[in-house]
Write a structure and sequence with these properties.
By secondary structure, the protein is of the alpha+beta class. The protein folds into four domains: 17-106, 3-Layer(aba) Sandwich (Rossmann fold), CATH 3.40.50; 163-407, D-amino Acid Aminotransferase, Chain A, domain 1, CATH 3.30.470.20; 416-541, Glycoprotein, Type 4 Pilin, CATH 3.30.700.40; 560-635, RNA polymerase II/Efflux pump adaptor protein, barrel-sandwich hybrid domain (OB fold (Dihydrolipoamide Acetyltransferase, E2P), Beta Barrel), CATH 2.40.50.100. It is built from 14 helices and 40 strands. The strands form eleven sheets. It has a nine-stranded antiparallel beta sheet with strand order 24-25-26-27-28-29-30-31-32, with helices on one face. The protein has a four-stranded mixed beta sheet with strand order 2-3-4-5. A hairpin with a 2-residue loop joins β30 (516-525) and β31. α8 (355-366) runs antiparallel to α9. The chain is globular and about 90 Å long. The protein starts with a helix and ends with a helix.
Length: 636
């Protein structure tokens, strides 16, 4: 406790067994599976061939490792939990084995089910403690979260450096005593102490500092006779002084940016070194070319404190991959982001000759990454990558909190031109449906298969209501005889003309609004119109009559609801307890995070719906809560 009061510290989960986010731990399949193929050869330092590897991981990184293994003619073995039975990495593998239930501590973290695994340690679910008074509470919370996520509640205490940069160096060592570095990555921009955008090389770093960083990382690797891929992490201050933080004994999630600037395949290097070969290149042969960014695309809601989400990927379309654009993912359209694991959907990686060109390419590619079905951080990444301070390379670990207002502005009303596009898309989809009905009935004159609005000696005007955020917008649509439309929103008149076209699995709206032509991806799902263009994305709702709408998802009035599907870890109240606004009611563990559910107002707990260890679905009422009479009158 004395140490805690002396200076600000970090509580860090030791995380010795973090399999669910291990980028590429590669081992031969366990011996108990050897009977499947007795001719299997194991990787050793003696130079024997590697013919099959076990990838003790899941998701996008498992898929990425399998691609290199396939290229090298190496068979891959996947492991999966019950929740991942139909996942992409299982389909890609030559063999796959079930390792247990969905919770990671019963599957990916089980030492009994995954053997010959080297222990690793890395920083994570992290707490900043600025005073002795806070220490005990943060320690308990960090331990609970670490135990659930990593099956290990050991803590490390580190000195806290205010507004630092997070710079890490990729190193490799082999069995012959050689070690090299492949330059540095800047991973400073983070939320919830997890990285959002990484880049290589680090912006603004002089050549002499870059050399010192690399040499320091190599010394650390050689000091422990390190073999394989590793990442040496440093904290850097504003004067580019750097301090050793830790070494991750594995390939990091952000390794693709290093591959892009060095022209290497680091997974292939791992396999060759594991087979006893020397590092493929000497230090002087490793050159830095251009600049690369990696944007992590997550299922999360940036406008709700980056709350992780889960659900189906109803629509998923991506930019086209090429030599300078890379997409590492472990999901496909139709797959579901699980509540049990990290909510990362994909990594979008781009390369260009310099930082500004790479940044332009990143933003261009993000606009082509379109997802429907759950909240994502894509629009936030666009806002972040376009911020003037980010463009200038002035990055640090407090970048998002410092610029929160600019990065997450209050939603503005949609431009009327976009509302016209949404209305046109709705009308054209309607027309496509009636045209299909006309073909089925084979009666081209049927009044039930006509939606052109044509009238003899008059123009037909139809009123459409769309919802922009919380506001209903009335649009008067007049059908012209030539197939165009006149739309009126408030006192503004728009001439609108357009049609639908298909490209692959996507539908596009080609239209002209007051003479300005555009091409926008159009998706209409249930009661929402989604428009994706190079200017950004927008969602416009189609209001549903009250008698058709389902019960509100906001939970019981005055109660507390589950922010997502998760497991109730702690319950602090019981029926009859009196609470005040902000009192902790429960602790929920979901998607590797701990969420404290608090009382919305002063009142009395009438009923608790969930006990410790039970699972609650998203938006489920957790308690029945009765406000005090005075508070109820004020709210009314």
């Amino acid at each position: 406790m004395a140490a805690a009061s002396a200076a600000s510290v970090l509580l860090v989960a030791a995380e010795r067994n973090r399999w669910q986010r291990l980028p590429s731990l590669l081992l031969p399949p366990p011996r108990r599976w050897a009977w499947k193929q007795r001719t299997m050869k194991y990787a050793t330092a003696t130079g024997r061939n590697i013919t099959k590897i076990l990838i003790a991981n899941r998701g996008e990184i498992a898929c990425r490792v399998m691609r290199t293994a396939k290229k090298m003619g190496i068979q891959s073995v996947a492991v999966y939990s019950e929740a991942d039975r139909n996942s992409m990495h299982v389909d890609m593998a030559n063999e796959a084995y079930s390792i247990g239930p969905a919770p990671s501590q019963q599957s990916y973290l089980s030492m009994e089910k995954i053997i010959q695994v080297a222990k690793i340690s890395t920083a994570q679910g992290m707490r900043i403690v600025r005073s002795e008074k806070e220490f005990e509470e943060h320690l308990k919370s960090a331990r609970r979260e670490a135990k659930k996520s990593f099956n290990d509640d050991a803590m490390l205490i580190e000195k806290f450096v205010d507004t630092p940069r997070h710079v890490e160096v990729q190193v490799f060592g082999d069995h012959h005593g050689n070690a090299v570095y492949l330059f540095e990555r800047d991973c400073s921009v983070q939320r919830r102490h997890q990285k959002v955008i990484e880049e290589a090389p680090a912006p603004g770093i002089k050549t002499e500092v870059r050399k010192k960083l690399g040499e320091a990382a190599v010394r650390a690797a050689k000091a422990v006779n390190y073999v394989g891929a590793g990442t040496v992490e440093f904290i850097m201050d504003s004067k580019h002084n750097f301090y050793f933080m830790e070494m991750n004994t594995r390939l990091q999630v952000e390794h693709p940016v290093t591959e892009m600037i060095t022209g290497t395949d680091l997974v292939e290097w791992q396999l060759r070194i594991a087979a006893g070969e020397k590092i493929p290149l000497r230090q002087e042969e490793i050159t830095l070319q251009g600049h690369a960014f990696e944007a992590r695309i997550y299922a999360e809601d940036p406008n709700n404190n980056f709350m992780p989400g889960a659900g189906p990927l109803v629509h998923l379309s991506t930019p086209r991959a090429d030599l300078s654009t890379r997409i590492d993912t472990g999901v496909r359209q139709g797959d579901e982001v699980s509540v049990h694991y990290d909510p990362m959907i994909a990594k979008l990686v781009v390369w260009a000759a310099d930082r500004q060109a790479a940044l332009t390419k990143l933003r261009y590619s993000l606009r082509q990454y379109n997802i429907v079905g759950l909240h994502t951080n894509i629009d936030f990444l666009l806002s972040l990558s376009g911020h003037p301070e980010f463009e200038a390379g002035n990055v640090h670990t407090d970048f998002i909190p410092q610029h929160h207002r600019e990065l997450l502005p209050i939603r503005k009303a949609a431009a009327k031109e976009l509302l016209c596009q949404a209305a046109l898309g709705l009308l054209l989809k309607e027309k496509a449906m009636t045209d299909a009905f006309k073909l089925q009935t084979q009666d081209q004159f049927s009044p039930f298969s006509s939606s052109n609005g044509r009238r003899l000696n008059m123009f037909y005007t139809r009123n459409i209501t769309l919802r922009d955020g919380k506001n209903n917008v009335a649009i008067a649509v007049t059908y012209n005889h030539d197939g165009s439309y006149i739309m009126q929103i408030e006192d503004k008149i728009f001439q609108v003309l357009g049609d639908l076209c298909s490209e692959g699995d996507c539908t596009y709206l080609k239209c002209s609004v007051n003479g300005v032509a555009s091409k926008t991806k159009l998706i209409i799902l249930e009661n929402t119109i989604y428009l994706f263009s190079m200017e950004g994305s927008i969602e416009i709702d189609i209001p549903v009559p009250k008698y058709l709408s389902s019960v509100s998802s906001e939970g019981t009035p005055g109660g507390a609801i589950a922010p997502m599907t998760g497991t109730i870890e702690k319950v602090f109240v019981k029926a009859g307890d009196k609470v005040k606004a902000g009192d902790s009611l429960m602790v929920m563990i979901a998607m590797k995070m701990e969420h404290t559910i608090k009382a919305p107002k002063k009142g009395t707990i009438k009923k608790v719906f969930y006990g410790e260890g039970s699972q609650a679905n998203r938006h489920a009422p957790l308690v029945e809560f009765e406000e005090e009479a005075s508070d109820k009158r004020e709210s009314e």
